[in-house]
Amino acid sequence: MSSNMPPVAKKIPAERTHHGDTFIDEYAWLANKDDPDTTAYLEAENAFLKEQTAHLADLQEQVFQEIKGRTQETDLSVPSRKGAWWYFSRTEEGKQYAVSCRVPADSDAPPLITPGERLDLEQVVLDGNELAGDSPFFSVGTSAVSPDGTMLAFSTDYKGDERFTLRFKNLETGEVLPDEIADIFYGGAWSPDGSAFFYTRVDDAWRPYQVYRHTLGTQEDVLVYEEADERYWVGIGLTRSERYLVLAAGSKITSEVRILDSADHSGEFRVVRPRTTGVEYSVEHAGDFFYILHNENAENFELATAPLDAPAEWTPLIPHREDTRLLGIDAFADHAVVYFRRDGLTGLRVLPYPDGGQGWRERVEAAERNAYEIDFPEPLYDVGPAGNPEFTTRRLRLTYTSMVTPPSVYDYELDSHELILLKRRPVLGGYDPAEYEQFREWATAEDGTRVPISIVKRKDAATPAPTLLYGYGSYETSIDPGFSVARLSLLDRGFVFAVAHVRGGGEMGRRWYEDGKLTRKRNTFTDFVAAARHMKASGWSERIIARGGSAGGLLMGAVTNLAPEEFAGVVAEVPFVDALNTILDPSLPLTVIEWDEWGDPLHDPDVYAYMKSYTPYENVDGRTYPPVLAITSLNDTRVLYHEPAKWIARLRASAQGGPFLLKTEMGAGHGGRSGRYDAWREEAFALSWIIERGTA
Questions:
Q1: Which among 297, 486, 504, 560 could bridge 473 via Cys, Cβ 3.0 to 4.6 Å?
Q2: What single string gives the DSSP state of each residue in 280-328?
Q3: Mean pLDDT of 177-189
Q4: In what order do the strands lie in the sheet with 222-226?
Q5: Measured between alpha carbons, how far is residue 490 from residues 42, 248, 507, 538 in Å?
Q6: Options 255, 454, 550, 674, the catalytic residue
Q7: Of 77, 600, 636, 674, which is the active-site residue?
């Protein structure tokens, strides 16, 4: 096929009529995954893409080698203690997947392990390479060791469709038990005695809606809970104290939690507080009381306490604040840690319980009076708790990163208030953070709202510079300032990298999210355009390439329609660009759940009209569009492959400019290819395309 002859998708008009509006969808046939014409079209698009990007092969290989060369391939994580063992994972040069390991614990400080070396008593818990074999795709959904350390529950996926098969391994003998359970969801929880494992199943719409209890060595599992409301999904966990099993049901806007004393794991769960529309809450066991994090009359959430025998009776501890979004609470035997967000940055607040014989209420109130926040020196950073499975400990494990500081693992000593650096991800090839600098800028949106932008560049890079501008802006998900090895291949070529923290995300609190969803969704898109224009007007940027994935791919499609002239290229990964058609179809995965995020266009004509005004697929017109690279996966169960396929077909048929390219991974899911070397090659491909667009 000639490079001048891109694939042309056939047009088979399909009529969609809702609320008096008729839309002709010529490419609806591409949703039929089993149609040979669909496969042929996707393969033709892949062939065209390969031809169009063949000249980038040397640059792709160069970028891949840069990523590989900066990565310490034989490495390991910082060990995390649980019971009598330290758990960690290894990566080995030449191998795609990590190996989970453990060693006996003989002190409170993690053992010093040299990458590539083995300890005498080291055990392999799970070898991803061995499990993957020759499969082109492999993923682990669950990897949970029983509280007594004797059994492992693990689940695997070999297609990318996120339907996992659950198995069990005896860690004392290495034997994999005959118990095998197909088609389960992520996660799960052990009973404290290791005799039973709780797991979830999904319905036809990919909604986790059932919780089952499997007793090892038996054939028939017990249905513990089934959620009938299609807006809710369920999950199951064991508290850090191992005292309670927690079964949570939640929609996008409402929570309902059930608890069960784990000593009687076959008993009946009891509701903490019945669901009330718009009220979200979570439960954390703190020994002789519960912490309750909730948003009842508290938009940015409030932290409360409740007695064990009356968990619905919430007494405020940390009241709501307009400037601080409370994100989570981790409870330990003699302290608690609150995870929060303020001024667009994350933070940690320690509540130390006093010594003495007070009752729990007096003790926790004293802890709040003596609470303090942990300070960090950089102007931009991201910090959070991590790897703290032990209930009784005087150390807090946390992770820290910034746009110039590689991911770092610290232990925070509660007694001395000392931060102990345990590991900073090695960046090979002479990386020096002093050669880079990070900034916070503020764009002004159409309605006057100030939109934060995080920026990183080499100190010696001239500006204005080619710029990669990233965005997401949905589900209250925050794109916090973080480090990327792959990004160095852009920065070292003189690029500026920036993140537009647009509304719909959570960077500036719950109101920031509320102002970028439902019938305020357009703020997400206009914020991003405002950020791009600010980057140019303030002298940072010349040619801007926009990038986003999943709901961020919807953002990419929307801003390409809104302001195509602002962008020299657009990379949309697994993009949600056919959002209206998807949200109109309740039989599709996750649609009903998503109505709380986007609105219900099926039953509400105003929502239908509003969504139609911004969804990318419906709004492609004959203007000149920038080059577009859309990347998808055939087995994606979250954003189906046909969304970008239809979008690219419509761009090619209706718009000027381009080129419009589609890359379909024919054997992967939402996260793309699974092996780390494969993932590096995929990133090198995208970065080589970005580099060309930025320097053309």
A1: 504
A2: -EEEEE-SSEEEEEE-TT-TT-EEEEEETT-TT--EEEE--BTTEEEEE
A3: 95
A4: 189-190, 196-202, 208-215, 222-226
A5: 30, 42, 25, 21
A6: 550
A7: 636
C-alpha to C-alpha distance for 434 and 479, rounded to whole angstroms: 23
3-state SS string for 542-589:
EEEEEEEECHHHHHHHHHHHHCHHHCCEEEEECCCCCHHHHHCCCCCC
> What backbone phi and psi angles, to 5 degrees, belong to 68?
-65, -40
Please confirm, yes or no, whether 636 is among the known catalytic residues.
Answer: yes
CA distance 433 to 401: 12
Dist CA 24 CA 1 (whole Å): 30
Q: 356 - beta bridge partners? A: none
CB 329 within 8 A of CB 291: yes
Report the distance separating Cα 459 and Cα 11, nearest Å: 51
Q: Which residues contact 651 (CB under 8 A, 6 or more apart)?
A: 620, 625, 628, 658, 660
Question: Is 276 strand, coil or helix?
Answer: coil
Distance, CA of 136 to CA of 512 (rounded, Å): 40
- Say whether pTM exceeds 0.85: yes
**What one-character-per-residue DSSP string does 242-273 give?**
SSEEEEEEE-SS-EEEEEEEGGGTTS--EESS
Contact present, 237 and 189 (Cβ < 8 Å): yes
Q: What is the pLDDT of residues 315-353, one digit of tens each?
A: 999 999 999 999 999 999 999 999 999 999 999 999 999
H/E element holding 646? helix 642-654
Tokens found for residue 415: 């007694």
Burial class (CB within 10 angstroms; exposed 0-12, middle 13-18, buried 19+) of 488: buried
Catalytic-residue membership of 135 = no
Q: Is the Cβ–Cβ distance between 227 and 233 less than 8 Å? A: yes
Distance CA 331, CA 351 (A): 9
Q: How far apart are the first and last CA of the chain?
A: 25
The CA distance from 484 to 473, in Å, is 20
Candidates 501, 534, 642, 670; catalytic one: 670
Interatomic CA distance for residues 524 and 501, integer angstroms:
9
pLDDT in tens, 397-418: 999 999 999 999 999 999 999 9
Length of the chain: 696
The two tokens of residue 581 are 């058609």
Rounded Cα distance, 441 and 435, in Å: 20
